[in-house]
Structure formats: C-alpha cells, structure tokens
Design a protein that fits this description.
The complex is a heterodimer of chains A (256) and B (277). With 256 residues, chain A is of the alpha/beta class. Chain A has six helices and ten strands, in the order βββαββαααβαβαβββ. Helices cover 74% and strands 0% of the residues of chain B. Classes of the chains: A alpha/beta (256), B mainly alpha (277).
Chain lengths: 256, 277
C-alpha cells in the first residue's frame, strides 16, 4: 500500500463542487508538485491533506493511519505567509515547535527546556539563522522567514510536509536559494512533500511528479457546475528535463 | 505650456518641525486667549464675578489647593481626592481587564464559547451603565464597591468584544501551524493567542480610559465623601469656578499621563507588535 492514499475525494462548498473524485497515491519520500489555474482546488486539496477540512466524499490516509479529523503533528505545513509566530523571537519559534506539543500547557521546563533550546540552536546554526536568533520575525527578510517556517515545521518530525505556495512572495533570486535549501533538507530527511505552486518551472524543478489540477470539462451554462480533478500526472525526475514527459499509465482517467 | 512655478498640492505639503510645534499650540493659545478676554470683560463689569475667574486667580487657587491642608481634617484635600479617585479607577480598570482577557480569549478561540457568550456580551454592552448606577448603590451600598463596580461594568463589555474580535482575527495559518506542532487548545490559547492579545488589551484600555473617567466622576458625583468628581460637584454649590477649573485641568492632565504611560508600556513590553499599536 502506498504511503499517501487519496481515494475518490470530492469537496464542495454550499453544494458548489470544488474537487470532483480526486484519486492519487504517493510513495514515501516522493516530492509532489501541484499546479493549476487559480480556483482549481489546489489549495483545497492541500487543506484536505492537512485535515484542516473534511472531504464531502472519499478518504485520505497517510501511512495506513485512520483518516485524520483535525491537523496534527503527523502533518507539517508552511504557508505563503503567517507561518511563524510573530510574538516569538526566531529562537523562541523553534523552541515553541518542540514545546507546544510536549504537554497540555505547551511549555517546557528544566532539563527538557534546555534540550529544546539546544536543538533550536543547532537548527539555527544549520539553516544559517544563528545571527538573528533573538530578532523577531518581522525584522527578517521574506526568505529568512520561510526558512524559519520550514525548519519549525520539520521540528515536529511530520510524516508529510505540505507547502502552500511557500516561495510565492519571494523575489526570484531568493527563490532559487530557497530551492537549494529545500532540496538539501529533503536529501537529509527523505521527507514526503506536497507543494502547491503557481510557478511551473519551480514545480518541475523540485518535484518528482507534477500534478495538474483542472476542470475536465466545462458546463457552458454554469461554469461552476463541475469540480476540478487531477487531469495530468507528469514524471518530473531528472530535474524535469524534458519538462513534459506524460506518463500515460499514470494519467488519471476521467470517469463519466 | 505655461512657465510658472509649480506649487505643490496641499495634500503633499507637510509642516516642518518648527511650524508643527506652532500649529500644535495655536488651538491651545486661542482657547486660553478667548477665556482671558471673556474673563476680563466680565470682571470689568463686575469685579466680584465668579463665573470666569481670571487665570491669575485660578493659579493662586491651584497653589492653595495643592499646598494647604484642610483645617478640619489636616489633610491636603487635593491629594487625598486624587488618591481616592485613582485607586477607584485602577481597581475598576484592573478588574475589567482581567475579566475581558479571560472571556475575550475563550470567546475568540472556542466556537462553543463564541456561540454561547458572544450574543450575550453584545446585549450586555447595550445596557447604559449609568442607568444601573442606582441598582449598584442599592445592592452594594454607597461605599467604594459600587463605584469600582460601575467602572468595571461600564468598560468590560467593550473590552471583551474588542479582544474576542482580535483573537478571532488571528491568521488561521498560525492556529493551523500550532496544531501541526501538536498543541492542545489550551496551549494554543496560552502560547499563541494570549501573548498576541495583550498588546491589543493595552490598546483598548487606552480607549476605555475616557469612559472609565466618565463613570468614575459620575459615581463620585452621586455619592462619595472624597474624590476628584466629588469635590467638583461639592464646590459647584458655591460657584467656585476657580476650584472646578483647577480640578478639571488636573483630571485632564492625569488622563493624558495615564494614556502616555500605557503607550510606553506597550511599546516597551511588546516590541514585536510595533506597527499594530
């Protein structure tokens, strides 16, 4: 059985279908990019994977566990913005990543606190943020904030990492640095990653697979009548070159 | 094309430092002048006029009030009034802040609490606090409790609504992130929502100080034996405008200083919230 299993998942809001019978599966350690036009349910799909929302129909299982009903430590997430806590310094953000889930109060004391601080300091050293350890996130550049957000998400050792346009707000140069940072982390951890992106090049560069979300057909009377699904599933290994090597066998058939 | 010097639009002109200072003091000077002229005009007609005492006379009265002890009690009434009022204000505001923080947090975080309490607090906030002052006097007596209670009751609903709003407006991303780090509801309230609600609490306290003073002075006017509001309403019987004006200026100054203190505290204690204040 695959690591992540998505079985005929549909989601609609007020009876307006957003996603329609999405099925896919991913192996452990795969990096899956998700692209598609605006409003095609990419972010909805990510929220479903995150268990922030429940699908109207279908189910999502991760590592054979029962479908989650709320976000938990088996899923890590980085959003485009607001992913770090603005009232904590960089170091406190990382300590909090260990502390929040440690007990009911979300606080650590004594030796455990020391250990969490040590881990935080090591991580800061590794991700190159040690020099701003005591600064607040608002004082950091966009790239630094996202590096912190990714490191923070990984502190909880999630089974899958979900990225919602994590580099969407960064300038092109910083984006490339962040790609290297993310690939390095991935080599180290072998993490399973789902990344929603608007940038096709980024999707193919980072991903092992690129899923395209789109509406399979258009209702000429009511454009909102039909939900989106996965219309293409590209193999994007060897750095996505050639970019579009359509795998007919993984092509998701559209059911009538 | 016409070759005349282009003048800036007024929306793009900004006063420099010296002119800013001048602009700031102009309204104050104008009011002072208007008062002085009115006062002189009245005093010229009737030197015993009590309605608009001359500024010099107000100064003399203020000096007497601040330094001379009351013959009967031996206390300087000005300072004992100030102490009585400030202590009532502080207790009322502290109680309001504590209640508002607790309820604002749970209403902001927990959908169950929001469903149950949010309409209730909205209805409570519609009650004009002064209308229930008689009830407070009947229930709690004429002592300190009823005055402190009026202040607390007067500003708590606003504080709760404001804090609940602020907590509910925390980006969903932050709350979801905390959940993916394994935090319990309590931990999210304590470590994510509470610290971000505190600067907002100080901000809304600053806004509430005006109403708090209003309720304090109203309560003191009705029944008290000391306090700034009590004194003003007492000397009203003797048309002692010089005393009333001294007290009014003093209350204004106190309110200004309290506001400034709260602003400095929040800037100092919450450097990360700089732009939100």
């Amino acid at each position: 059985m695959s690591f992540v299993e998505v079985e005929r998942v549909s989601q609609s809001y007020d009876r307006r279908p957003i996603l329609d019978r999405v099925s896919m599966s991913a192996k452990e350690g795969e990096f899956i990019s998700i692209v598609g036009a605006s409003g095609c349910g990419k972010s909805t799909f990510l929220r479903l994977l995150l268990a922030q929302e429940q699908p109207t129909r279908g189910r999502i299982t991760i590592a054979g566990a029962r479908p989650a009903r709320e976000p938990g430590p088996d899923r890590g997430v980085v959003f485009q913005r607001y992913s770090v806590f603005p009232h904590m310094s960089v170091r406190q953000n990382l300590v909090a990543a260990s502390a929040l889930g440690a007990n009911f109060f979300g606080c650590l004391f004594g030796a455990k606190r020391k250990a969490a601080q040590k881990t935080a300091d090591d991580t800061l050293e590794r991700i190159g943020l040690a020099h701003v350890a005591h600064a607040y996130p608002s004082a950091l550049s966009g790239g630094m904030q996202q590096r912190l957000a990714i490191a923070q998400a990984l502190m909880a050792r999630p089974k899958i990492l979900l990225l919602d346009e994590p580099f969407g707000a960064l300038d092109p140069g910083t984006r490339i640095t962040m790609h290297e940072f993310l690939m390095e982390l991935r080599r180290e951890t072998g993490m399973t990653v789902f990344m929603v992106t608007h940038d096709l090049g980024e999707g193919f560069k980072l991903g092992d697979r690129v899923l395209v979300f789109d509406k399979p057909r258009w209702d000429p009377v009511d454009p909102n009548a039909i939900g989106a699904t996965i219309t293409y599933d590209f193999d994007a290994r060897d750095s996505g070159i050639p970019f579009q090597r359509l795998q007919e066998k993984t092509h998701v058939p559209i059911e009538a | 094309m016409q070759d005349r010097p282009r003048t800036l639009r007024w929306i793009n002109r900004r006063p420099d430092r010296a002119i800013s200072f001048l602009l700031v003091i102009i309204p104050f000077v104008l009011v002072f002048l208007a008062y002085t002229i009115g006062s002189e005009a009245r005093l010229a007609v009737n030197p015993a006029d009590k309605l608009l005492p001359a500024p010099t006379q107000i100064m003399e009265t203020a000096e007497r009030l601040i330094t001379e002890a009351d013959k009967r009690s031996g206390k300087i009434l000005f300072w004992s009034d100030t102490a009585a009022s400030l202590s009532r204000l502080a207790r009322g505001v502290a109680i309001a802040a504590g209640i508002a923080l607790a309820f604002g947090l749970i209403i902001g975080i927990l959908p169950y609490a929001r469903t149950m309490l949010s309409p209730f607090v909205n209805v409570l906030s519609m009650i004009p606090p002064l209308a229930i002052l008689p009830i407070l006097f009947i229930l709690l007596g004429l002592g300190e409790t009823s005055k402190v209670a009026l202040i607390a009751i007067g500003i708590t609903p606003f504080l709760i609504r404001d804090l609940a709003q602020r907590v509910a407006e925390l980006p969903t991303e932050q709350i979801v992130k905390a959940q993916t780090l394994g935090a319990s509801s309590f931990a999210i309230g304590l470590r994510v929502a509470l610290p971000q609600a505190l600067p907002r609490l100080l901000g809304s306290l600053r806004l509430s100080l005006g109403p708090a003073w209003l309720f304090l002075i109203a309560a003191e006017a009705v029944a008290a034996d000391a306090g700034l509001g009590y004194r003003i309403f007492l000397v009203r019987r003797y048309l002692a405008m010089d005393v009333i004006l001294t007290y009014v200026i003093w209350i204004t100054l106190l309110a200004f200083l309290l506001d400034l203190a709260l602003r400095l505290i929040s800037r100092h204690a919450f450097p990360w919230a700089e732009e939100g204040l």
